[in-house]
Each structure stands twice: as C-alpha cells, then as structure tokens.
C-alpha cells in the first residue's frame, strides 16, 4: 500500500527548492517518527528511515514503502537520530545518504557515535549529543539535547551508558522566537516535564503515540507514551502545536491517531494539532 501524499522526485524537489521566509518553518512528515525541517534555510532530517525493515522471518515490517532511496537525497545539512533502534537510526539509510551528501553531518547520542564511525562515516562528520551541552549549528540555530526515558518499564530517569551519557534523547531546535521539540521515544515522567519547562513556550512538539501493552511488553518492545499521555503532556506545558507520530509504519507497533484527536478535543480543545499524511508539507508561521 502506498500512503504517500507526495513521494519520489516530486517530494525531493519540493524539499530541495523550499525557501521558508524568516518567520516560517517548513516541516514534512516522513512516517514513523521521521520529520524533515527547513529552518532558516537549514535542512534537518530527524529519525528518517528510507530502507526496508525485515522481521525475523525476513518479511518486511513496513506497512508502506519508503518515499525515495537515501542515495537520491539532494539536500540535507544535518541528520539527527534520537537513539539506536532500527526505526530511528539505520545504517542502510545513513550510509547511502552520507555518500550522496558529503557535506551532511550526523548528530547522535554520544553512545551511538561509534556505530556510525565503525560503519564508515568519517569521525569529523559525526557530532556527539549530550544532555547539558548545547550545539550551535550553522551559526544561528541551537540544538539542545534533552533526556528521553525510552525504557522497557516506566521509570523517572532515562538509561545512561558507562560514561553517564543518555542512550536515548529528544532534541529542541531553537532559532530566535521558535522552539521545535522532537521527543524521540520516551515515556512521560516528572523528570521529563521539568526538563522541558525550562524552555518556556514551545512552538511545536513532535510526540510519539504508539504506547505499549502487555503483549508488546512480553515481547520486549521498549515503551513509549500513548495518545492520552501525549495529550496530557500538551496540557501540562505551554505548547502551541502538537504533531503526533510513530503510529503508522510498522503494523505490530502502531496506533490509531483518532484516539489522540479524541483526547485533544476532550482535554485541551484550545490547543492546536495536525495529523499528517506521509510526505505532506506543513508551513508553520510563528509571527
């Protein structure tokens, strides 16, 4: 099944030729938890997966195919991966992308850096992301890593490696008046709420809603917030617009976004949200 609103050359050309005004951000939804953002002319790919995903039986896990091949990408400045799971960081996507776009840099949690270097991406192209260390990208955009609590069972703090670095992250992109939060995969906990409160109002929050259940937990599927959790996060913080995601690409790890919509209307009808079609562009104006 092809669910793409726009794909192939039409989508690639739209991204390549995009020229947002200073008060705009252009955002494309790329399925699962993947987004492309053009912010002030700088293009970010976040958790983009452009390869097939195979199960233990060697059958495809994808509900619909990639929109284009990673080697076809014409314009990308930074690739951000929130953690080292195959539907967020996948070398079958990253390596061809790195070859066809030699200027692109890759931002990953510090514990993930060696995975890219050992696969053949040059050390000077891989940027370690650590909580507490802001990254200035392209001169005027700040990338702030924030913890993500992507654990089998809910706990207040995220997991860390032997060096004390979080293995899973969210990212906040900051440019003057605009703040865009990509949550990565995470539960909602008090520690996460506190880490986000320091930013003040967030313009956009990109939140997973695939959740978990007893069967997926029994199968060691790492947990995430569910639709109601995402709505309660939007309720707890000053967020202008919510983009739910991580509900559509893998059949056994999906969710119905209508549940998110229903809860938004019930609990915070004053807040904005948008349900994307894959490959759709959204223009956000923040003035």
What would you note in describing this structure?
The structure is a single chain. This protein has 287 residues and is an alpha/beta fold. The protein has a single domain (8-14, 25-285), classed as Metallo-beta-lactamase, Chain A (4-Layer Sandwich), CATH 3.60.15.10. 21% of the residues lie in helices and 25% in strands. A seven-stranded mixed β-sheet has the order 6-5-4-3-2-1-14, with helices on one face. Helix 6 packs parallel to helix 7 (257-267). The longest helix has 11 residues, at 257-267. The protein is globular. 44% of the residues are buried. The model has no long low-confidence stretch (mean pLDDT 95).
CATH C-level: Alpha Beta
Structural class of the secondary structure composition?
alpha/beta
Shape: globular
Contiguous runs where pLDDT drops below 50 for at least 5 residues? none
What is the element layout, followed by pairings?
Elements: H1 8-16, E1 24-29, E2 35-39, E3 42-46, E4 78-80, H2 91-100, E5 105-109, H3 113-119, E6 126-129, E7 135-137, E8 141-147, E9 169-175, E10 178-182, H4 190-197, E11 202-208, H5 214-218, H6 227-236, E12 239-245, H7 257-267, E13 272-273, E14 281-285
Parallel strand pairs: 3-4, 4-5, 5-6, 10-11, 11-12, 12-13
Antiparallel strand pairs: 1-2, 1-14, 2-3, 7-8, 8-9, 9-10
Helix pairs in contact: 6-7
């Amino acid at each position: 099944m092809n669910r793409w609103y726009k794909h192939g050359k039409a989508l690639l050309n739209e991204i390549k030729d995009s020229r947002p005004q200073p008060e705009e951000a252009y955002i494309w939804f790329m399925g699962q938890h993947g987004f492309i953002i053009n912010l002030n002319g700088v293009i970010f790919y976040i958790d983009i997966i452009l390869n097939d995903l195979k199960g233990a039986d060697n059958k495809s896990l994808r509900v619909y195919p990639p929109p284009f091949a990673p080697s076809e990408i014409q314009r990308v400045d930074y690739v951000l991966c929130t953690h080292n799971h195959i539907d967020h960081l996948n070398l079958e996507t990253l390596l061809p992308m790195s070859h066809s776009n030699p200027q692109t840099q890759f931002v990953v949690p510090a514990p993930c850096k060696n995975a890219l270097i050992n696969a053949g991406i040059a050390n000077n192209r891989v940027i370690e992301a650590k909580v507490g260390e802001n990254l200035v990208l392209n001169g005027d955009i700040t990338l702030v890593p924030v913890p993500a609590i992507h654990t089998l069972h809910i706990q207040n703090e995220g997991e860390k490696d032997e060096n004390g670095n979080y293995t899973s992250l969210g990212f906040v992109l900051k440019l003057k008046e605009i703040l865009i939060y990509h949550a990565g995969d995470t539960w909602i906990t008090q520690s996460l709420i506190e880490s986000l409160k320091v930013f003040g109002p967030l313009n956009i929050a990109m939140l997973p809603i695939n959740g978990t259940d007893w069967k997926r937990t029994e199968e060691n599927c790492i947990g995430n917030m569910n639709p109601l959790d995402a709505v309660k996060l939007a309720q707890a913080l000053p967020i202008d617009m919510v983009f739910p995601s991580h509900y559509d690409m893998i059949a056994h790890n999906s969710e119905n976004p209508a549940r998110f919509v229903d809860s938004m209307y019930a609990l915070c009808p004053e807040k904005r949200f948008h349900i994307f079609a894959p490959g759709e562009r959204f223009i956000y104006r923040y003035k």
